Every structure is written in structure tokens, then in C-alpha cells.
Amino acid sequence: MQSFDTITPVKTIAERLRAARERAGLTQPALAQRANVSQGTIGNIESGLRKRPRDLLAIAAALHVSPSWLETGQGPMHGDHDQANVSAAPASM
To answer: What's the rounded mean pLDDT across residues 48-72?
Structure first.
């Protein structure tokens, strides 16, 4: 039985997003609603179509994970991410 305290090493943003979403017990539509993005955005990232999503900060905040971990796999999965920075993030990130 797999422990939910750890996530197996994942290599891509698509794999990290899916692992974090599943760990949180969220469907793609539920995560999309939490992050205020479309379900298509989540689906496109998870399928590997979007490598550098402009909504990364909002998605990371909705999952309670570090944006840098989500994007690159570097650093701790859970880190400091200020919710205020999500709304202040530029739309073209």
C-alpha cells in the first residue's frame, strides 16, 4: 500500500501536477474551480501540452504546494507561497 505522506519522484510538471492533485483528492474540475482556471487548463498541463502555465501560482496555491516544486521539481514540495502573490502575479507569466 502506498503512503500518502510522500510522492514518488516525478519528472515533469504534468506528472507533478497530477500527483499533487490526486494526493489532494481533487478531480481536474475541482482543482480548476479552486484555482479559478478552466478544466482544460488543468487537462492540458497534465497531458503535457502546456509546459509553462501562466496560472502556475494559482494552481500551486490551490494545491498548497510550492510553485517552484510544481514547475521544476526542485526544492520542497510544500513551501512558503503567499496567497496574496497569486492575485498580484502578472497574467503573462
So the answer is: 92
